[in-house]
Design goal:
Blueprint: E1 2-5, E2 28-33, E3 39-44, E4 47-53, E5 56-63, E6 67-72, E7 78-83, E8 94-99, E9 104-110, E10 117-120, E11 124-128, E12 132-137, E13 142-148, E14 158-159, E15 167-174, E16 177-185, E17 191-198, E18 202-207, E19 213-218, E20 223-228, E21 233-239, E22 247-252, E23 258-263, E24 267-272, H1 290-299, E25 305-308, E26 317-320, E27 327-332, E28 336-341, E29 348-349, E30 351-357
Parallel strand pairs: 25-29
Antiparallel strand pairs: 1-9, 2-3, 3-4, 4-5, 6-7, 7-8, 8-9, 10-11, 11-12, 12-13, 14-15, 15-16, 16-17, 18-19, 19-20, 20-21, 22-23, 23-24, 24-25, 26-27, 27-28, 28-30
Length: 364
């Protein structure tokens, strides 16, 4: 990793409105909600945009070439951006920390391989390559740890948001299976556990904001598992369906008692994680065993609410439950943001309330 810094990193300030308000036939390359789900970052073939979700408005836009990754740090002016490789200055091997208030790059990190994912909180920045994970101190951009991994072509990595206690999780393949997860302490930089989460390779993983729960899904996509952290024991098995599916996204609400799951089947499932539905922690040690499979069939939790996204075919999407638990927000790669009403008490079918266009910023 090589680093170029033009001035000290500041993580204060607010997103400002850009003067650029033109329409185009651009294509969405990446979508990321910020840590409290109040904003949405959209990378396109032309550049990137930042939207406020409530009220919906475009807060910032920069047209400087294709952006393959755009990540916010809450609602601050600090963004982590990675080019899509359509021009030399926007290499997929270069990470820029960009200050939207000053409208300039404040730090650049160059890697030997393409950057597949980036996660950040107020203390740490994590960069995922296919065979390596880099952890940085976000205040100094000093490399704290470089971790060799098994093949991680999806760039899967999770980072919890705590400042005093924070965890990183990433997939690991071993002789016993391909669905393991390694959890490390992001502050003290030591291994916490190895979780045997699934028999098949992982397709998605996410921490709750406080880092007390980790949700995982495999390439089969029929079951989602929830583990208590740092104990790393299985506490919930969630049944998405019986037909295999590609999981697009997993997301906890702010209190980690709801989880929303999206897949290529077009239906988004919301699960309620009641404490009286918890599994015996001992069961988390034998994922994939005959007794575990039988237990999953009997004890698995079904969704308590659901919704259908109005998109042609299996359009990729990401979903979140913002603060208040009254809404589900769904952003799709065909350029829409949907808001559904959620009855957090009774569940059932979620009703579409609002629909927005992301590629021209006009409400429909």
């Amino acid at each position: 990793v090589s680093t170029q810094s033009t001035w000290g990193i500041s993580i204060v300030g607010f997103i400002i409105m850009s003067d650029v308000l033109s329409e185009s036939s651009e294509r969405v390359l990446c979508l990321n909600f910020n840590q409290d789900c109040s904003c949405l970052a959209v990378g396109t073939e032309d550049g990137f945009k930042i939207f406020s979700c409530e009220p919906f408005r475009r807060c910032y836009e920069k047209k400087d070439g294709g952006m393959g990754l755009v990540c916010m740090l809450y609602c601050t002016s600090l963004l982590a951006i990675v080019g899509a490789g359509q021009q030399p200055a926007l290499s997929p091997r270069r990470l820029q920390l960009y200050n939207s208030s000053e409208q300039k790059s404040i730090c650049e990190l160059n890697f030997m391989d393409s950057i597949l994912n980036v996660k950040l909180n107020k203390k740490r920045l994590v960069v995922a390559l296919e065979y390596k994970l880099h952890i940085f101190d976000i205040s100094t951009m000093k490399v704290l740890q470089a971790i060799e991994t098994t093949s991680n072509s999806r760039g899967l990595v999770g980072l919890s948001m705590g400042e005093d206690i924070s965890y990183v999780a990433y997939p690991w393949s071993s002789e016993s299976g391909t669905g393991d997860v390694i959890v490390i302490d992001a502050i003290n930089l030591h291994k916490v556990s190895v979780i045997k989460a699934h028999q098949a390779a992982l397709s998605s993983l996410v921490f709750s904001n406080d880092g007390t729960r980790l949700a995982t899904a495999s390439s089969k996509g029929t079951v989602i598992r929830i583990f208590d952290i740092p104990e790393s024991v299985l506490v919930f098995t969630l049944r998405r369906g019986s037909v295999p599916a590609q999981i697009y996204s997993l997301s906890f609400n702010s209190t980690a008692n709801l989880l929303c799951v999206s897949s290529d089947k077009g239906t988004i499932h919301i699960f309620k994680l009641n404490t009286d539905q918890k599994k015996n922690p001992k069961e988390g040690r034998n994922v994939g065993s005959i007794s575990d499979k039988l237990s999953n069939m009997i004890d698995s939790v079904r969704d308590f609410a659901h919704l259908k996204v109005r998109s042609e075919g299996s359009v990729r999407n990401i979903c979140v439950i913002p603060n208040g638990d009254a809404r589900v927000m769904v952003a799709t790669y065909d350029g829409f943001l949907y808001q559904f009403g959620l009855d957090a008490i009774n569940g059932g079918q979620c009703r579409l309330e609002k629909e927005y266009r992301l590629l021209d910023s006009h409400q429909s």
